[in-house]
Each structure stands twice: as C-alpha cells, then as structure tokens.
Amino acid sequence: MFTMSQVSLPVFEIGLNALAGVLDKAAAYAAAKKVDPSVLLGWRLAPDMFALGRQIQVACDQAKNGSARLAGIEPPKFDDTETTIEQFKERIARTIGFLKTLDGKAMDASSEREITFPLGQNKGQMKGCDYLNHFVLPNFYFHVTAAYAVRSDSAQADLADLQGYPRRPGLTLCKSGKRYLRRCAAS
Asked: Is residue 30's pLDDT more than 90?
C-alpha cells in the first residue's frame, strides 16, 4: 500500500522536471527559428484555454498548494509575474525545492482530515485522500499535459519528455502524423 506522500510527491517532481525540459526545448526552438521566446509562452491550445505560461503556473500551484494543505501548513505565495522561460524554470525549481521540505508523515496523516481549499469564489472541502485523488492530482496532470500539448509540435517535444523518464536504448515512440500511437522496437 502506498502513502499519500508516496503517490504525490514523486509525481509532482517528475512532472515539473519534465515541464522544465519542455521549456528547454522551447528555448532551443525559439533560438533556432529566431522567435521571441516570450511569444511561445503566450501560445494556447484554444482561445478559451490558459496560455502556456499560465498552465505552468497552475501546475506549480497545484503541486505546491495541494501538498502544503495536506501537510497541514500554509502554502507559500508565488506571485504570477513570470514573463520569460528562465523565470518559469525558476518557478518550477522553487516549487520542487518547497516540495522537498514537506513532512511526508504529516501528508500521510491527512487521509481522513477535512481539507478546505479555494474553489473559485467559494471554498471546497474534502477528506485528504479525496482531495489528493479527485482534485489535486487530476488538476496537476491536466495542466502539465496542456502545457506539454501547447509545446509538443513546434518544440519537438515528445511523450518521453512529458513522462520525465530517461530514454531506453532500443525503444522509441512511433508516430503517425502528429499523434503518438504506441511504443515499438527501434529498427
């Protein structure tokens, strides 16, 4: 059986490090194409969705705020003032640094405790295990995936970048068009 901290903290660290890697690819793409990198941070998947930069801020906030609430402490406030790829990478690094300071045992003890959290103009309330599994993790995954999707085509990022895993020799991701379909043996 896994604890609350075991199912969340590594996921947050891997996902955030993967986002930092995607930002590195975005910076390389911008340099190669002679595009202002700040333009890339304003790209979005659809007109009513957050831009890449805001997706990164929200992913960081979900990891930071959700974990802090589960640990029973007040989450630190990060101002949403980033405008450059380097500033977004610094925010990711600060978030990971904060996560490493959390008491895993305090998070684990929150399973049955009521967690109150902002929910738009209202307040939400859930038991810790429900808050983690039905609010924090799904929202984190959504915003990491949305940020990845904004960058994937133009920055040559692929599924292995999003997953944050080292590449394995002899295994590649096959793609048809622009969609990754399955893993296949490298030829």
From this structure: no
